[in-house]
Specification:
Blueprint: H1 6-14, E1 18-21, E2 27-31, H2 41-49, E3 55-57, H3 69-72, E4 80-82, H4 90-96, E5 104-106, H5 114-123, E6 128-130
Parallel strand pairs: 2-3, 3-4, 4-5, 5-6
Antiparallel strand pairs: 1-2
Length: 131
């Protein structure tokens, strides 16, 4: 029996991402750390439709755009967001501050300043921010 996220999982795998899924076929993890796979707008939209995603690892120049950052806040179960070496900006980090479910946020190697990380840490008390 096909799972609810099978279509997007198939596309992510074809693009070189590693994925984790539940026993019922729901998408739990999207990871490009070992492949450096590029995130396209179509793939990103598919990931955003899955409300079960808990971990997103978008490292390097994987195409995560600052304009797409607001969509991440619609993922109610997101626990880990790793955008190391991406184009994440100070403004985008400010928009992520409303994500109370995040436990780990890696912004190392981005355009985010140390000052903005310090400000964000004050509002995201339960989140470990790496930067």
């Amino acid at each position: 029996m096909a799972g609810p996220d099978d279509n997007v999982i198939e596309k992510l795998l074809a693009a070189g991402f590693e994925v984790g899924k539940s026993k019922t076929g729901k998408l739990l993890r999207v990871d490009n750390r070992s492949s450096g796979a590029l995130m396209t707008s179509e793939l990103f939209a598919g990931v955003m439709q899955s409300t079960t995603v808990r971990e997103i690892w978008f490292r390097g120049s994987c195409g995560i755009l600052n304009e797409q950052i607001n969509a991440l806040s619609t993922l109610p179960r997101l626990l880990v967001l790793d955008v190391e070496n991406s184009d994440l900006s100070n403004e985008s980090l400010q928009r992520l501050a409303s994500m109370t479910s995040l436990q780990v946020l890696n912004v190392r190697g981005t355009q985010v300043t140390a000052e903005q990380i310090a400000v964000t840490r004050k509002s995201m008390i339960g989140t470990r921010i790496i930067g």
